Amino acid sequence: MLFNSFSFALFLPIVFVLYWFVTNRNLVHQNLLLLVSSYFFYACWDYRFLFLLVFSTLLDYFTGLKMYDARSEGLKKFWFWLSISVNLGFLGVFKYYNFFAESLADALGQAGIHTNFWTLKVILPVGISFYTFHGLSYVIDIYKNRIKPVRDFVEYSVFVSFFPLLVAGPIERATHLLPQIQKPRHFDYTKAVDGLKQILWGLFKKMVIADNCAEYANIIFNNSAQYGGSTHVMGALFFTFQIYCDFSGYSDIALGTARLFGIELLRNFAFPYFSRDIAEFWRRWHISLSSWFRDYLYIPLGGSKGGKWMVVRNTFIIFLVSGFWHGSNWTFIAWGALNAIYFLPLSLMKRNRNNLEIVAQGSLLPSLRDMMNMGITFALTVFAWIFFRADSIRHALAYIKVIFSRSLFTRPEMTPKTILAYLAIFIAIEWVGRENQYAIAKLGERLPKPIRWVMYYGIAIAIIFLSGSQQKFIYFQF
Amino acid sequence: MKRFLTNILLFFVLPLVVYTPVYLAFYYYHQPKATNPCYVWGDSQMCQDVDLDYLNQNSQYKYFSAAAPGAGLYDFLVFADKVPENSTVLIQVSRTVLLRRKEKDRNVSAISIGPLATLLGNGYTINEVGQVVKNNLFPKRIFYTINYLYRNADTISTKEPVSTFEAIFKTKPAYFEDKKTICLKGIETLMKKHCKIVAIQFPYHQILNKIEANSPYRQDLEKFDNDVAARFAYQQTIEIKLKENIFTDLTHLNERGAKELSRQLAPYLDFKQSPIIIKVKQGE
Prior knowledge:
The complex is a heterodimer of chains A (478) and B (284).
Chain A: H1 6-22, H2 27-46, H3 50-69, H4 73-110, H5 128-143, H6 153-161, H7 163-166, H8 174-182, H9 189-222, H10 229-260, H11 278-284, H12 287-298, H13 308-326, H14 330-348, H15 368-389, H16 393-403, H17 417-432, H18 449-466
Helix pairs in contact in A: 1-2, 2-6, 3-4, 3-5, 3-6, 4-5, 6-8, 9-10, 9-17, 9-18, 10-15, 10-16, 12-13, 13-14, 14-15, 15-16
Chain B: H1 2-29, E1 37-41, H2 44-49, H3 52-58, E2 62-65, H4 73-82, E3 88-92, H5 95-99, H6 113-120, H7 126-135, H8 162-168, H9 176-192, E4 196-201, H10 206-213, H11 218-229, E5 234-240, H12 255-265, E6 276-282
Parallel strand pairs in B: 1-2, 1-3, 3-4, 4-6, 5-6
């Protein structure tokens, strides 16, 4: 069930009504409803993989309890490593086994040893990377004595499988989400309206911007040999906006939906394309994943403490793992490595925390220096996305080679003026709303209600009539 | 909560209240107006294979066509639902409609609850039905009276490669039976409304006839023909025997073929034999 599907448009109001009108007097019933709805939501995609989700939930729930109750450090360690290895084992088998088998076969083949490894013929269970990371953070936090385990299985299950974040995040932390699940929730008009607005904006980003950009990005990337350098740049630009609006649109819908149920999820995007350096970009892009890796990988590895060698090593590890998290393809690893290369000079010069505030705070326009920095950061990001989108490293390199050819200075074969106009409007709205949680959070706040409603109708009409052909959310594959 | 629900309700009801009369007025205004109308439905074959001008001049009816390239079965259901009782209709019975992927169907004939429910009850998902609703939110003119004939040529030009058709006829689509049921329901609706019906099955080029003959699910296609034919009191065959090429591509006649077909079809459009199904073939 996709967020931008008609079935979700039916599903959401039904759950909402049951939640606030039928089960509202009893927290246990409310949580049970959320759990059943979440499992139904997941089963709509593929009910066969529901067992995997339930198994993963049971595993982390019990290992959490066992670790807490363990009488010795050794026993605690045993349960901890059992959970970690089974969780990562599932992820490894479903997501990475074929990659490793094929890569090894290729490597051996080049050495003259021809092997034929057995490969899995199974699709990747949707959301596995997300719910596995939920579980891992919970288990690690218990192991590190940061939190106590949850005794109520339903509460823990809702934490792992709450439907707005189940298939593509944000990756929640037990410390943030669990307390909200454990305490009674009361309907808040302002929050609910805010949630609806964020859903509306998320749908606009996904259906009008991402899906329209996707059509051109797909044509250009899938037939790149036919086009010149300038068209390749267009293709990379379209993909840059596709992936941002696809994923941040999804996150907006998830956050807005959760808010309708009185639950606040972690913010996942904070206008990353207005960043002035790569470090700022990574503080604003897929925040829940970046902070997860920071807290559970980078800092335990030593972070930026220690010598320069340590900083280089840790930076590369975190970016390579982050790239690999996205999928089992060398292109993602290259994308991660490229971002590490971008990030490293800032980190070594201790300039990675220079731009902590949003750009041009309180002003309408940025300074010339900010504008230049934003332009450079954006260009670097667009360049890196080529690796993310390409089918293989060879494809990415061939694509880049054409960009740096004479054909860069020719007229692009494709200039969809309508899409470019949508993008211009979208960037303007995002710029104006960049100091808020999402771009339209305070749009027309001081205007009379009828005018505000006209604005919302405008966005809704754009979603209905200007949307591109429906594309799956990119992050579903991760 | 009360305030929230009131606002939500208002937000959704307000545009409905404003838009619905405009929407309905549009379709009312564009209703065919003639003393002796004959309503036509079909997909691109009906558009291109029949010369409406010829029929207008050689029969007592004024022809209003709702035929459109890629027309889907929702279009047919709405057509059957909306034509007045006892009216005269010329419809196409098409195998290609059953084989075409659901998302490729045009399905733009205004929002109509009955036909939407029929889709939902016959294998269409909520999302597919929702997509049909979305296609129809903006009203579009349905009936037209002008000709769309293809130019004559000595050879056919295939926009779609032959391999595409081979692939289509290789595997029976999962939705074939659902679409068949819907098609039969549309015909039955017209019959219940006591319409005078002339139904046509247009010819395919011999290349496509061969592909179809070798199809693994040829029997299902024949069964569809038989099930349709069983609902008609009369059955006829028209043979187009011309020395020149009569096709534009594998599925459409050119102007020459369309004019010859229309000439032979006109006598049946007095509707004395109704309901009748006419199978059109290319003569040897």
